[in-house]
Write a structure and sequence with these properties.
It contains eleven helices and no strands. Helix 1 crosses helix 4, helix 5 packs antiparallel against helix 10 and helix 5 crosses helix 11. It is elongated.
Length: about 210
Amino acid sequence: METPQDHLAQRILATAKERFFRVGLRALTMDDLAHDLGVSKKTLYVHFPSKSAIAEQIIDFIGRAMRSRFDKILDDPALSLSQKLCAIVEVIGANISKISPLMLRDLQREAPGLYQKIEELRQKNIPYVFGRLLQQGHDAGLVRPEIDISFATEFWLHAIRGLMQLDALDRTGLTLKQTLDKAAPLFLNGILTPTGQADYAAHAARCAAHQTPQ
């Protein structure tokens, strides 16, 4: 049963999350949070020792929520491989679209431990999610039979990690979401069978249309 203290902690995290994605860690202050929540800074410190501790909780929550969503997609027998691919890319895109390269740079400078935590989550989740996805595609005959799933997964991990480094984003001038949108078809077209490619292209077009503001 949730206590009043638990409820306040959740309110703190929800308010901090909105500010964190809007202004970054440097501009996220305990004074502003206390003002927004109508509590004292002392009350905030009862729940969280620092703004970095709050940011760490936010990152952990997002990581758990994404992992749970991925599992639901991967375990859904009603979805085809292409539908799962599109759904996973959509979940990733919806989350990283909130993160700008400027915010990442701010995080790297202000809290390198938290920046590293994001890297560790990426390194943990990409092999798990895409390894399962590619194996399902291989079993369904939609991934080319000669493809080494373990190698392909490792290749994708390092490609994405490299492309999403700050210096790479500076060179390409792309956001994280734009980087993912460009990288995914390049990778998938190299490993899918012609049938898999055609099916993915059709579903990807529908996904893009669905995400485009009307």
